[in-house]
Amino acid sequence: MDCIFCKISKGEIPAKRIIETEHSIAFLDAFPLTKGHTIVIPKNHHEKVQDMSQDENSDLFSSVHKLISKVDKLTGATLVAIHNGKDAGQEIPHVHVHLVPRSENDSGGPIHRLFNSTLDVSDSELNEIYKKLAE
Q1: Chain centre distance of CA 76
Q2: 46 φ, ψ to 5°?
Q3: Of 16, 40, 58, 79, which residue is 20 to 30 A from 33 by alpha carbon distance?
Q4: Model pTM?
């Protein structure tokens, strides 16, 4: 497998590691959007969050929880982002959580700017979606 995050996990590619646990690693992004942009990954290769074991999931999000306060101190606000699959914008098919320090003048914006327009959903469609998610 030619996964850059797997290579970082195995130490084949150097990275500025911030923390490492039994199941996850956090390191500075090599192509940061802002100063302090951090990536948190599971050590094992999984494309989507739901593919991870419960132990890996707990460990990954515990690492996110530990780091977010540190990242947040850089600017006072942090964007936490996960692209879960190619169609969601995931460029590297290995679960990774972005912790991006945000500030008023960083050229980023709210999540709604990712899309060209808002979706018009009828009440009946909304109820059908609700039923599928609530099952």
Answers
A1: 19
A2: -140, 135
A3: 58
A4: 0.92
Per-residue pLDDT of the chain (135 residues; tens, 9 = 90+): 689 999 999 999 999 999 999 999 999 999 999 999 999 999 999 999 999 999 999 999 999 999 999 999 999 999 999 999 999 999 999 999 999 999 988 888 888 887 877 888 999 999 999 999 999
Catalytic positions, please? 96
Environment class of residue 9 by beta-carbon count within 10 Å: exposed (0-12), middle (13-18) or buried (19+)? Answer: buried
Query: What is the distance of C-alpha 80 from the center of its chain?
Result: 6
Q: How many CB atoms lie within 10 A of CB 24?
A: 25
Show the CA angle centred on residue 43, arms to residues 37 and 47, nearest 5°.
80
CB 99 within 8 A of CB 37: yes
